[in-house]
Model the fold of this input.
Amino acid sequence: MPTDTQPLFESALAAWKDGRPAEARALLAELADESPDSPDVWLALGRVCLHLGDGMAAFAALSEAAMLDPASPSIALALAEARWRTGDAPGALSALAGLPPTDEVAAAAAAVLIGHDIATPELADLLRLAADLLARRQDWTNAATVFRRLTEATPDDSAAHCDLLAAELTASGLVLAEVAVMSPSQLVRLRRAIAAFRASCRLAPERPALWNNIGTMLAHLESRSLGLIGAKAAAAHCLTRWLALEPDNRTARAAVADIFYSRRRMDQAAAVHFGRLIPSGPGWEEQPLDDFLERLDATLADIERHLAAPPSAQAISAIGHALAGLGLSKEASAMFHRAHQAEPLDPGHRVALADMLVRHRLLNDAAAFYAGRPAVAYPPLVASAP
Done:
């Protein structure tokens, strides 16, 4: 760039930084006419046009910059974004796939992948890069989306299926203590977690993280259901498989020891905790895990079907009954409360809600609902799900 145009270039950048992009664009367009051989000017003009939402102008300016400096990663990255903004998402991803694997490239790829169902084997490395970035940022919902794209692009990648299981599990809110009540839409994410577990188990059953993730899911379900879901045996099987694969893993030992402790088998709990025992044999290796997952998946499919139906008190109540069948009484209570609010004269919603209150020993409130007294104070147990 000629030195006599440097002050004008700096003025344009200052205008953009100060929140005057239209002024910056005008100055940069003037500079581009005066210094058409400067890639920096074309790059800045393209970025300002992207900021203003003018994708076609941005693409034209950035194409000029790319011809002047084809080796510049920053120009290639901006040009890929311009392709995306002008509707060429596949072209944008192809361009990003050819760039060095940086966080900036990963973030740009993630932005495209979240909104476009694109998954080809040629993009596998880029998909992994974007998914890992989202996971590091703990953006679990979008991480699960991109991991799912990765499993579609590379169906034989057991690590991708295992990572999808972990992302879906976290996105569901099941393992997050701050999520007191899971919404049905969060809960049905566990269907994809189960599918990812089955795929990964078929490809690489010796992967410790696989059994850690599915065992953690089942243990949290058992805890949230206050033992009513019947997942303890399946969780014990998975966590024991994890410990068998990683006998020196203290977290795995603690998880299995907790299972013995919950069964009042104190000597065995201590033996596992201190590394003197790795459980095996009948009662641990032969638990009906598949049967439990089949039942859980069928119930979640039923919930998903009701979520897709037109909104109605009956559909909401049906979701509540499915949740109650899983032992998730807080989540079921939230659904029965919504159904009761929608149809306060329907005794079925009121009785179902009272049944959930009985589970939590809120007997006075339950009696009021059974009797149909509307003045009862509503307990925190059944606050609306997030």
